[in-house]
Structure formats: structure tokens, C-alpha cells
Design goal:
Blueprint (H helix, E strand, L loop, with lengths): L13 H9 L2 E2 L1 H10 L6 H13 L3 E4 L4 E4 L9 E6 L5 E5 L1 H13 L9 E5 L2 H6 L2
Parallel strand pairs: 4-6
Antiparallel strand pairs: 1-3, 2-3, 4-5
The structure holds zinc ion (2 copies).
Length: 134
């Protein structure tokens, strides 16, 4: 996060911006914890509204496979990354998916299909876990 404190929607719990800046991966449950710490009462709808805000504004990406959210490392760029998910430690790395997406779009076009959204999630082992693996 390079821009310091995150600008959050009006009325947002103060802890949400810090969460987006500090935490690399979180779920709705973590948001609820923050809300509780802020003394706001942990209401699931508030947590989901916060997560919705973070994802639609590019502060975070939703990782379907893990049912979790990761903070985005490139919030200022409009980008469509691929996610490299370690099956051992659940670390998520963000990688540019430009070429893969271009190929996908081309294939889709040939099939007469209009893509509206695609999430690239790759499963494997991160460098750390490869060292440990037998
Ligand atoms: Zn990103
Ligand atoms: Zn790993």
C-alpha cells in the first residue's frame, strides 16, 4: 500500500482502512473482529458492505477458492491479475495475467462468447513450500 491511509466510504468503520493497508489476507470474520475492536458492534451486513467496498474499489481481490480476500498490491492501476495460490500454506501471490487473458479473450471471441469477467486462480506450491516438500 503506497498511498497511506485508505479513503473509505462515508460512515465506514475507522478500522477498515487500516485493515486494507496492513492485512494481506482476510475474510468476513476478520472484518467483524475489526468492527468489534472499533466498538461498532459486529453486524455481518456491515462487514459485507465493507468487503464489497474493498473489492469494488480495487483495495482487495476476492479469492473464490479460499473464500477469502487478499489486499491488492497495485491499487492505483486498473488490472486483472492471476492468483497463484499455495495449496500448502494458502499464501496468495498476485501475478499479471495479461497474456493469459488475451488468449482467453481470443478463444472466447472465436466461440462467439462475450466474456464479462474471469478469475484466474492457479493452485500449486509457493517457493517456501517447495523447499520443504520431499
Ligand atoms: Zn490487484
Ligand atoms: Zn506455501
Amino acid at each position: 500500500m503506497c498511498g497511506g491511509r485508505v479513503a473509505i466510504y462515508p460512515g465506514a468503520p475507522p478500522g477498515i482502512g487500516d485493515l486494507a493497508a496492513k492485512t494481506s489476507r482476510y475474510g468476513a470474520y476478520d472484518i467483524l473482529e475489526i468492527l468489534r475492536a472499533d466498538g461498532l458492534g459486529a453486524q455481518p451486513p456491515v462487514a459485507y458492505r465493507a468487503l464489497d467496498f474493498l473489492t469494488t474499489n480495487g483495495f482487495a481481490h476476492r479469492i473464490e477458492r479460499l473464500n477469502a480476500f487478499v489486499a491488492c498490491a497495485h491499487t492505483l492501476e486498473d488490472h486483472a491479475p492471476a492468483f497463484l495460490i499455495c495449496r500448502q500454506c494458502d499464501t496468495v501471490a498476485e501475478a499479471p495475467a495479461g497474456p493469459a487473458r488475451a488468449a482467453l479473450a481470443q478463444t472466447a471471441r472465436a466461440a462467439g462468447f462475450a466474456i464479462e469477467g474471469a478469475t484466474v486462480e492457479a493452485l500449486g506450491l509457493c517457493p517456501n513450500c517447495q523447499d520443504v516438500a520431499p
